[in-house]
Amino acid sequence: MGIYLNPGNNKFQMARQSKIYVDKSNLIACLNEVIQTENRFACVSRPRRFGKSMAANMIAAYYDRTVDTASAFNGLKITQDESFLTHGGKYDVIQLNMQEFLSQTHDIDELLSLLEKSVLWDLLEEYPHYKYFDDKSLARTMSDIHRQTQRTFVIVIDEWDCIFREYRERKIWQEKYLDFLRNWLKDRAYVGLAYLTGILPIKKYGTHSALNMFSEFSMLNAGPLASFVGFTEEEVKTLCDRYQMDFETCKAWYDGYRFEETGSIYSPRSVVESMTFRKFDTYWNQTETFEALKIYIDLNYTGLREAVIGLMAKEPRKIDTGNFSNDMTTFHDMDDVLTLLIHLGYLGYDFATSSVFIPNHEIMREYISATKSGSWEIVARSIKDKEIKEHSCIIEHASITSTL
After folding, report:
1. Would the pLDDT of 60 be above 60?
2. Across 165-256, where does the E strand assignment appear?
């Protein structure tokens, strides 16, 4: 067992041993349908605290050939799927969290060098006696291992997009990073499955994606993975019954993310925290303050401020998401800003009507906090001020009744 190669199932077991654990293991069945096929590349994007790392740990634990899969997944839904035994514990897994490498380095060259050296260290320790063409090259070394073992790799990358979020203006660094991923993953026989997870979909240059082999599952369209984005309504009802919490109040606070395939989807961290503390309150934003929202709604795009006020007055707004460049700096118009807010979790999206809306009380509080400055206050009073105040009162009432 290495640090990055076949890391075992400790992180997954910690999740299973938590006080509240919701079984999302059937996500693996969806991946088993595409492993070792042309469709073996998946990029799953969703907001902070929507269970991305937990899913990555589960996937890595399932495929890891050093893990006793039957024991690790005992009692979970995936064990009833016919593919469970076919793929469980059969692969070399490489699991990476890009945020870890980002925090230890100062530029993209240093980051990519550290990543390559770290994974190669594990690979050469596991396979020390093979003949290698270039044991300083990650792609060539993995090709040599695959050729001599006939094993394919499952590659799981969490926080894959942190470079785009923290190096927002460094276009050359971003391109180097995408070039590295393309060279490492695209058209490589050693890749049995590649699973990327982050907040942003894959960066586009012009109208094209630099990693066009990936299928994307996002807050705009999660497709067959919709039920694994957050908690479904049935899962939330079950938790409310267990913890004797009022379901309708919970729905008002944390519902609002919707997909055609599943209907309502709830913010998982917020639901878990509310059950744990037995109080409906704002939990999701503990990873970011309202200042993060304010940066975007204060951008000087025609109609943006009025659109936000309308959304706060509970008026859905039709937008065009097609021109969004999947980064946090390239905006052509108001619709691009609103599309980013969908990916960040500050807006819900209705695929059928192409409309955005503020999903729930918890997120509405963020907008109220972000629009308290003077210029916003003037606009709020002049455009549907009454509706906004009523919504604020509903929030306060829900907070009070949840504690009774």
Report:
1. yes
2. 191-198, 204-205, 208-209, 215-217, 231-232
